[in-house]
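Service request form, structural biology core

Requester: graduate student, group of Dr. S.
Request type: structure prediction, single chain
Budget code: on file
Notes: please return the result as C-alpha cells.

Sequence provided:
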Amino acid sequence: MDALSEALRVVRLVGAIFISARFSAPWCYQSPRADSVAPLLESGAERVVIFHLITDGECYVELGSEAPVHLVAGDAIVFPQGDAHRMTSEPGLAPAKGARLDAVLARRPRLLAYGGGGAVTRLICGYLACDARFAGLLLAGLPPLVRVNVRGSSAGDWLESSVRYALAEARSPRPGGAGVLAKLAEVLFIEVLRLYMHEQGEGRTGWLAGLNDRIVGAALNALHRKPAHAWTLDELARTAGTSRSVLVERFQLLVGNAPMQYLTQWRMLLAANLLRHSTTPLLRIAEEVGYQTDSAFSRAFRREYGLPPAAWRRAQSAASGASAFGR
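Core staff response, request fulfilled:
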C-alpha cells in the first residue's frame, strides 16, 4: 500500500457537504476562516479544511491580496491553511449579508439560493476534519489555494453525478443520505489531492511533493508500509535506491525533516490515533509502532505530545465526553 493510502487508512477523517448553492449574478459570498467555523462544522475537530466544487457556471474566488482566480464548472478548490475567502460572480463585489452561520448550518446540507437573477452558478461547499498533526503533515508545503478540475480525471464524472444523487437523497425520507454525502466529501477531497500531486510542477515542497519524488517517495512508502520495522538510514537508502547523503538531502528539502525524525513523528501519530480511538493496552501500542518497551515509547510520545501516553489518552477521553455532552 502506498504512503497516501496508508495515511488515509489509519487516520480518522470526518467529511461532510454542508451547503448546496444556486447563485445568480450578481452575487458574492464571504467564507470566514476555517478555524472560526470549525466548532459549528464538527464538534471537537482539531483542524477543518474547507473545499468547494463548481458544478455549473463560472465564478471567481478572492483570497487576501492575491489576484482573483477564475473558476469554471468542474473546478474543485481547497484552502489548506483555512484562509477566509470570497466566492463571487465578478471581482470587487460586496458580500451579501445573510443569516448567522450557526443558523445556516443548523440543517445540512443547507440549500442556498440568491442573487440578482443573471447567469447561474451552482456549487457545493464541504469540509474535512482531522487531527491537526496529520493535517500539518498532509498539507505541508501546499499553497493557500489548491485548484484542480475533476472533469479531467477518470473519477470526475462519477464524483459529480454521485454528489448530485446524494444531495437529492439527503432531502428524501429514506435513511442514510447524510452518510453517503459524508463519504463522498472524503472521496472528493482525496481525489483533489491525487490530481494535484499529478499536476504540480517543479519546485514544490511538502509531503505530497515528496511522494511524487522517485527517491523520497520510495522511502516514504517503505516507512509507511512497515512503521514498526527497526529502520536504519543505510537500509532505507538501499530501499530507495540511493545513497544515505542523497536521501537525507532530498528528504530534508521536500518533507522538511530527516528520514528518521519523520519516522518518529509518524509513529507517534499512529500511536495517538490508537490511543484516541481504541482501548489497546499501552505495551501493545508501543510494539505496533516500533518500541520494545513501554518506557521508551512513553518518552518518545511525551516529547511529541507533551504528556505520557496514559495521561494523554485520559485527557482525550475527557475532552471527547465534554464535547458530546455539549451537543
